[in-house]
Amino acid sequence: MATTTAAIAITSADLLTDALSLSATKTLHKAGSTVGLDQTTGMTKAYLTATTRVDIFPQLIEGSIAFAGTSSWVYICNESEDETEYVVVKIAGNIIGKLYAGDYLWMPWSQREDGHGDNHHGDITIAPSVDTGMWFSWCCVNEGTEYPTENLATA
Amino acid sequence: MATITAQLTVSSDISSYGGPSISKTMTMTKAGTGNGLERTSGIQRKYLTDKKHVDLIQGAAGVVADMTVSATSSSAKIYIKYLEADTSKYVTIGFGDAKNNVDLAATANNSNDASFFELGRLYGDDWMIIPWDGTSATGDITVHPSSATTAAPAIIEYIVFFD
Q1: CA distances from residue A51 to A69, A88, A131, B52 in whole angstroms, order as listed
Q2: Which of B19, B130, B121, B93 is nearest to A41 (CA)?
Q3: Chain B positions in Cβ-Cβ contact with residue A112 (cut-off 8 Å)
Q4: Does residue A112 belong to the interface with chain B, where contact is any CB pair within 8 Å?
Q5: Are B75 and B4 in contact (CB under 8 A)?
């Protein structure tokens, strides 16, 4: 059984009168169990040169039988070093928030079925703020993967 | 100007070549600048005593009276943790309209034309950290526990950092 552990430490010495120190650690389990997650997309490193919105996990088919009620965790990082550059992260076509340079997110993902059949409204998408090139990293750790079937159609 | 850092560490042996592994420190800054965020809700705890779908954090002034977020320049961050030893229990985190406390199953599926979308589930002791655009039409963060009673409430801890 694989073991994946996620830990966070949020600290600030000068935000409040007293120091802020908050930490948490959790081993990632399959839904409702104590069995470790054992699948991953692997870490992607991507350089995006357009502001076009893209689906960052096209190989994962949200709302499928394989994913129903399963557990998935997503990491996305804006690796830009220009503080004015950001990326807008959406799910289901709605905004979660913006990641500015150096920002990341770590969140669960239900991949819930969309309301329009197969319109992929459980997708996680990102759109860079500039088309001059921005680096990103992303990864999904999950317990179920259903790959798109082969499609050889030419037209 | 305050300095707030969030250090994420993920270690895994899923892959035979190691990983995925993550070690990343984020310094929370105001939108488009190198200036640190300097406002916070403080650490909050919410006790849910029934299985209703409710707002955990409301957009705009729902966090604190002087909170302002902007659809064009928001840089808010939210940390949420489900305090529960039983890993079979979970809370569903969503965005948008909590549907007046009705059961989550009765709400619409994910859609860009709906007033609610489901993000994911936090099982016992799971936590998450995300950016937040609290002014969009679906800006409220909602929560729906799988199990919650007066005797055994679902306890959720969260903190918001904002511009």
Answers
A1: 33, 10, 5, 39
A2: B19
A3: 109-110, 117-118
A4: yes
A5: no
Contact A91, B93 (CB under 8 A): no
pLDDT in tens, A114-144: 666 555 667 899 999 999 999 999 999 998 7
Structure confidence by residue, pLDDT tens digits, B8-60: 999 999 988 777 999 999 999 999 899 999 989 899 999 999 988 888 888 76
Q: What is the average per-residue pLDDT within B61-71?
A: 55
Percentage, residues of chain B above pLDDT 70: 79
Which residue among A16, A32, A38 places its CB closest to the CB of B123? A32
Give CA–CA dist B54/B143, Å, rounded. Answer: 6
CATH for the stretch B40-162: 2.60.120
Q: Nearest CA of chain B to the CA of A73: how many Å? A: 9
Question: Does A7 contact B at CB distance below 8 Å?
Answer: yes
Tell me the nearest-neighbour CA distance from B156 into chain A, angstroms: 13
């804006």: which residue's tokens? A78
CB contact (8 A) between residue A95 and residue B6:
no
**CB pair distance less than 8 Å for B75 and A98:** yes
Residue ranges of domains in chain B: 40-162
CB-based contact, A40 to chain B, within 8 Å? yes
B155 touches chain A (CB under 8 A): no
Q: Which CATH class is domain A29-142?
A: mainly beta
**Where are chain A's structural domains?**
29-142
Which residues on neighbouring strands pair with residue B80, listed in sequence order? B128, B158
